[in-house]
Amino acid sequence: MPDRIWIFTCLTVFQLLSPLVWCQNQSTTEQLAHTQSIGDLVQSEQAVKALPVTRGGPNGSFAPIHILYIHGINQIGPGDSMPLRKSICKYLHKCTVSDLRRVYVDSGAFAMDGKWPALLYLNNPIWTSRQDWNASAPFIDRYEITGSGKVTIVLDELNWWPLVYAVKCKFLIKSDALLTGPAKGLLNVCRPQETKPDPASPEHFLEYQWLSSSDLAGIEGKPRHADVVNRNLKSGLMDWGFGDAVLALGPMRDILASGIRQMMMKSLELSGVDLESTQPYDNGSPTFFITHSLGSYLVLDALDTGILGARQTELADFRITANEKRAVDYLSEHTVGFYFLANQVALLGLARLSLESDAHDGAPPPAELTADPALGISRWATMRKAYLERRSPSAPAPQIIAFSDASDLLTWSVPDIAGVRVVNIPVRNSGFKIPPFLDGPVGAHGNYATDITVFRTIFEPKQK
User: Per DSSP, what are the bridge partners of residue 378?
Assistant: First the structure.
């Protein structure tokens, strides 16, 4: 018995001290010294004077720091960037956050008078009406963050989650309610009390009834067979959460990538960028992508202009357009780097293996025959390097800073990538813990934006 007590005590002490172990070591500090943080640009008076203000949006002028935030799995409604916005305000000390506007994707394959995609789930159509498709439209929420006389930050929250509501509500949540028992919270999401059009854009919806009255009647009152924790993990983590990742591996990938590219276009248009211009975009704002979870994987798909869309004729409308390519090219040149708050690149890459026989005598296969997220990284790195050679040869190389909590079940380290400085940083996120046996997976995966190590890495200056 004393031996067991001693072992338990040691493990408990180790758990309590583990945050110290996971602090940035000297090697990580040295790697970050060769990167450029948002803090470097916010505090640089030279950057303020040298980089022109971008015109556009309801408030007129925008300062040069531009953040594109992309959420990950398990998203319910807008606002996932709120913890990040609060962290920015902590950095700026005195802070004002202005909610500027919401802009829906409404062009190309997402045009409100167009046809919805003919995707089937087990021979059942996912979208069955124009309202269904309009309720699935992705959108941007734009915020302007100012404080302490520093450079204003424009943050665009890119919301792709509406695109996956239809299939998850109509099929996964509905059927699992009969197996494990009703998940009240998710049923309320899939079947709100009423459908609410957005007053600012009546063709779109703030809430939408994905389940019919008969669907709801068949679910309500059913016995809850699974134990509480198991049921919540099944409906929440697996159905509503990891279901997103599975969807990203099939034909839905092309719809998601197109939606994200369309949001990129909208973001640049809001900032006054003329995508039709033939002039080089050398005076644009420096951009950072901050992506959570599956968002890291999806944005790399969206940035890869070599992927022409699905080979299925039903999804031909979701192939990359000329303006989408211009938007991707612009962002590839102006993106300083990515901050991955957890990512599934290593795991989901298992679904995209290629055959050696496809390599054509050692050369990579044609881009249109592949779906490798690394292609998006490589293209961004090449275009960013060429841009820096024209504008600022001494600037840091393209960078990916990836954060991972060892107790997070849904994150993997980013491997080395040619032409990109990759820095993997371990963190310990806040959340429910029973040391040394359990670190709540929800907090470990969801609390990156409030982690002090993440906060300091993104916002404290690295350049000396």
Answer: none
Dihedral sign, Cα of residue 350, residue 356, residue 361, residue 367: negative
Residues 266, 140 contacting (CB under 8 angstroms)? yes
Residue 37 CB partners (closer than 8 Å, separation 6+): 457, 458, 459, 460, 461, 462, 463
CB atoms within 10 A of CB 74: 23
Q: Are 155 and 69 in contact (CB under 8 A)?
A: yes
Q: What is the DSSP letter of 457?
A: H
**417, 412, 427: which is closest to 372 by C-alpha?**
417
pLDDT along the chain (464 residues), means of 10: 40 39 61 88 56 40 77 96 92 88 94 90 95 97 85 93 97 88 89 96 96 90 78 84 92 94 96 81 85 94 66 80 92 95 90 64 46 70 91 89 93 90 93 69 88 92 72
Tokens 């709801």 belong to which residue?
Answer: 216
Judge whether 384 and 309 are in contact, CB under 8 Å: no
| Residue 77 tokens, joined | 């409604």
User: Are the C-beta atoms of residues 425 and 453 closer than 8 Å to each other?
Assistant: yes
- C-beta neighbour count of 330 within 10 angstroms: 21
Specify the DSSP element, H or E, that contains 338.
strand 335-343
Structure tokens at 256: 């998601």
Q: What beta strand segments (E) does 276-334 contain?
A: 287-293
> Which whole-number Å values give the CA distances from 159 to 196, 252, 334, 344, in the listed order?
18, 16, 21, 18
Contact in structure between 187 and 163 (CB atoms under 8 Å): no
Burial class (CB in 10 A: 0-12, 13-18, 19+), 418: exposed
Q: Which residues contact 186 (CB under 8 A, 6 or more apart)?
A: 173, 235, 236, 239, 240
Widest pairwise Cα distance in the chain: 77
The helix (H) or strand (E) run that includes residue 39 is: helix 38-43
